[in-house]
Target: ATP-grasp domain-containing protein
Amino acid sequence: MMKTASMRVLAAGNLFSNQPVLQLALLDHEAQLRVSLSASRLILKAIPVQREETLDFQAWKILHDGQDPVRAALVVEALALLIQRAVNIPVSFSATAAGIAACESHAIFEIENTDAGLQAGEIAVRLLAELASSDAGRVRRAFEKEFAAYVKSTAGTIPEAETLDIAKRARRRGIPWMSLPNCTFIQLGHGRYKTVMSASESSYSSSMASKLAKRKQITNPMLAAVGLPMAIQRTARTLNEALVAARWIGFPVVVKPAEGKKGKGVTVGVADDAQMGSAFKSAQAVSRRVVVESLIPGDEYRILVIDGQFRAAAMRRPAHVKGDGRSTIRQLIERENRNPERQFGAHTNLYPLMADREAQTCLSEQGVSLDTVLEPGRVAFLRRVSNISQGGDTVDVTDSVHPSVREIAERAASILGIDVCGVDYITKDISRPHGEVGGAICEVNSRPGLSVHMVVSEGTPRDMAAAVLERLFPDGAPSRVRVVAISGDCDEKSVQRAIVALAARKGRHVGIVAPGPGGIRGSHVPCASHLEQIGAITMDGDLEAAVVVVPPHDIVRFGLGLDHVDLAIVPAGEASARSEAARGILDRVSGGNLITADDPQLVDRVRNALKPALARHGKADVRETARPQTFPVARTSAPTDMRGRSDTAEFTALLVGDIGFGEPYFGHPRALELKQLYATGGYGSSLRRVSELLAAADLRIGNLEVPLAPAPDPILQGYKKYLGWSDPDETVRALVKARFDAVSLANNHSLDGGEQGLRSTIQKLHEAGIASFGADMDQAAASQPFMKTVRIGASERTIVVFGCFEHRSKYERQYRWYAGPDRPGVNPILPEIIAAQIKALRVAVPSPFFIIYPHWGTDYLDVQQSQREYARQLMSAGADLIVGHGAHVLQGVEQVAGRLVVYGLGNFVWNSPGRYTKLQATPYSLAAAVCFRCVDDRETLSLRLYPLLTDNAVTKFQSRRVSAAEFPDALAVLTRNLDGPTGKAGLHEDPRGSYLEIPVDAVR
Model:
């Protein structure tokens, strides 16, 4: 008789697979260890009908197609995988291994959840024993009983089907995932890239938005107050209150729980006082408060909105059957319930049709019964409500939704702040304008089901699980901690020290998992529990890189604990059989990126392995090459601070790039860290890591690229993309704290709040003591430059800064963006006008220095030809220096007519979720300091350029100076087009990092 000798869980990265597996030893002293062909055929007959997807794995195909007796281990593997796959767990790997004794065989199969995997293995062995009966009916009953118990016992630990649908897509894209213990949540990604999910909800979803959506009595008046069409609702706590509400609204009505889900307790079409009693009782069984709602005529639709954008729509149909002229309704129900999608309740996308009392009541109202034979094509409904959980199905109508209805759904999601939002909308015809056919929102869901769009009875399925995953991990976005694994007797400590030093120079958070005292970040972790240490790597939200030191015998015996590493280091020379086995595992999980500890390229390989998951241009890059410098530079020590000497004076004007604190992105999943940052430190916390740069300057100027208005202009909504707005008080408070003296408003967002928004911006800045320029209430005011006269030594200097915005046809024709004689707006780049102003100011103010501060270029791209043409014209107009912004990325510095042009400062604080990786753009920006010095009555002038790292995905919304490791990359971008007499330019260092200083005299 066959029995289980032992069961052992092997962690990811084991002898058999990169994924966790269960190794189950089968023992049969009769040494058979095989199952006859008739017995294997019995399994195929006995197993209830399954979805095609569930049966699509190798072990089952072998069992299905085999013509000979099969190994008992294979049967166990196939059944154990089938049981897990039937509840949507995406497992497929299996293998068979011989035991030490002839009577022993090992079944090895993939698991994801340890408890669910162990139970599946035990059930598989018991079902194997049932085959001895040769009774298909008995085996089937045994399977159904075991499976029902399995579903019940694992209900609190196996994620629901839609969550696992997302997990499947994550695995296809190479994004790691795992179930979290003692719950139905999963984690996607490792370390700093992790997010927790449950169906369409993630770590980034707003808890307040979720609470609002669950309280129908709150969301309904909120949305009605802003003019959205809503069903009329009243809330009742007693039957008498419900009757009063229904009479006030007018029968027929809908009665439902105030806080319910999945259609439980909902009664549609309550026609009079007599029907109210049972309807109220049903609703109050779910929620103490009951909602009485007007009945909207028409079909019910679920509209899915993701990050404020319409993505899909489906018509929801109540549970029903369609006649064929031969079968009774009861037979039609039984036939439909054989649909694999209706087989196993919560782990399938549809639910069984019920022939219960409610169905019979519903049929009676249609003049039929369960024994009625429906004529061909006639539909009989089994429910009034259209919920999937009540047996309903869906028809895709995504391509038919009228734009006016899309806008209603998008506004509802935006007002409530729901990132993934399901809007239940009822109308007679969703393809026609709302104004023509009417319709209303009856409910808004913060955790909408995705299967209503993915599994449809008619129309095109829409893969919304992939859409939800994409919003969390855009194509190419990193998802894994970078890991170096060390195995064997190589000089672990010296390698660890080298790795930590390299990681520190790159500004990476590195964890070391190895024997020894200390904690995980940057030190050693106690080796009390090997696998728990590995788990710390995946769970620690600060980690970007990790080093794992594991003895070979642990890897072979228990598994590495990771399904992938970026580099594996093994000892040189001959090795034992166990070490060779460990080496094979590491070679597999590293994708062949394995070296010996004596390899002369060890340091370079480690350096490459610890690079960010996405390199400078957004693609994986395993090479590190020196960036050529485009002109000779001399490295010096930090310049001596001579401002305390009586015969020396210095004045620094700092110009920085785009400023916006990210309010339009608060609904984005990656903005959770930003909101947490603001909750603890306010808006100014985004400037904390550049505060020393700001404090060192005497004059600070930035480009404020949002209006000080709490909402965009309604006229522009749906007309102009990427509208900006802000929290005016918090924004001004942060600018004042950072000691900004002036901001330019000459950009493509200053009028996003309309004329009133521009007026408010100018007024609030003025009240805070911050000058504004580049936009105003008419052309004459908008064209006025910012000026500041300062004394440097014994002489006066006037710094003159012109704010202007390049000409764009759409902004002139459609948006009327540019200021006119009597029209508010921004100052356009008009070289002839600027030339006249420069000519007049040269005789009007003392020693003027003219800086043009234009907003120009194309987002996230290098310098455009139009920028170069503008630069040529502006230098001809008399400019001394051009410092531009607008492309959100660092653009290089060049010489034009013997003077310097900094084409793009990029961002300073621009708190979008981060688009550098997706657009393959350099993640750097720049701060430019114009330094006037007077030494012994001789004035010198130089331009200091401080590269900044402004990729919010890396900086966590706190821009900073680049690190020593990042500086060569930024410098190469900055100087690649700089040539001419620049021999006096030099690289300098201060306590915060490196910068480039170019004496202006050297290029003039």
